[in-house]
Amino acid sequence: MSLLPTRNAALRYCTPLAREPISPEQAEGVSRMLKALADPVRLRLMSMILSHEGGEACAMCDLTEGFDLAPSTLSHHLKVLHDAGLVDRDKRGVWVYYKARSEAMGALRTLFSGDLAAPQSA
Amino acid sequence: MSLLPTRNAALRYCTPLAREPISPEQAEGVSRMLKALADPVRLRLMSMILSHEGGEACAMCDLTEGFDLAPSTLSHHLKVLHDAGLVDRDKRGVWVYYKARSEAMGALRTLFSGDLAAPQSA
DNA sequence: CAAGGACATCGACATGCGTACATGTTGACA
DNA sequence: TGTCAACATGTACGCATGTCGATGTCCTTG
């Protein structure tokens, strides 16, 4: 119950959108990642984590600045990112550090890679 | 009223997530694109459009196969993609052709580009 | 001009999602 | 052991969203 079996499934079958029509299963998996990222708060959180020193950030130390939200709300958003397999959670003492999962980031990069506008400039 | 002023705004300021914490405004704009894509049906539609010959596809000719949805539902999803600035609409006679907008696709590619796991392999 | 097809739009309904408050859990420290 | 701080979880509320049937609009064809 600790790891969802579908978490890695989408990553494995992640192909460029423009290569061929993706399968309903892949669409389901990928949309789960994108849904987690399709929120202004979570997008900023993800960017803050990614651009933070060491590629990881402490929840209440580094990730509260600039937000006018209740702590529980921030925690909820981080959980959504974690459940989607986008970030790893590492509890060190009292603080919790979040780090981006390179597999997930790579999958998203792959998704939008390739010649997405091939016949445009030609 | 034909073009939303915010449509191009997000594209202009689209920087890699890992470069620096994105601004709330950029997060708002980018999330609008991702929200449009964060649905299995629309993801498949986008992939079908991108991978179709010529980079464009006819709504009822090419984009209904494989879906068990009412035509109005498909039309709605295509409208969402269009409103988000992800596809262009071109009515030719009775048929409507949808084509991916290269600016939007490029923005998404930029978003997930860069070293998203810098201290990982080093 | 009439009929039909290819869409888009309009309610309407069920579900999902963002937010906050209250509460629970865990670890550091006196 | 008791207290406080850093979270996570549960519940609840309001709004957004996916879906559909019905209707409207535009173009083609007879």
Average pLDDT of chain A, rounded to a whole number, is 88
User: What fraction of residues of chain A sit in β-strands?
Assistant: 5-15%
What's the number of structural domains of chain A?
1
Biggest sheet strand line-up of chain A = 1-3-2
The number of helices of chain A is 7
**Biggest protein-protein contact in the assembly:** A-B, 42 and 42 residues
The span between the termini of chain A is: 50 Å
SSE arrangement of chain A, N to C: HHHEHHEEHH
From the 3D coordinates, which CATH architecture of chain A would you assign? Orthogonal Bundle
The dominant shape of chain A is elongated
Oligomer: homodimer
Estimated helix fraction of chain A: 40-55%
Task: Tell me about the largest β-sheet of chain A.
Answer: 3 strands, antiparallel
Features of the shown structure:
alpha+beta; elongated; 122 residues; 52% helix; three-stranded antiparallel sheet; Arc Repressor Mutant, subunit A; homodimer; 7 helices; disordered N terminus; DNA-binding
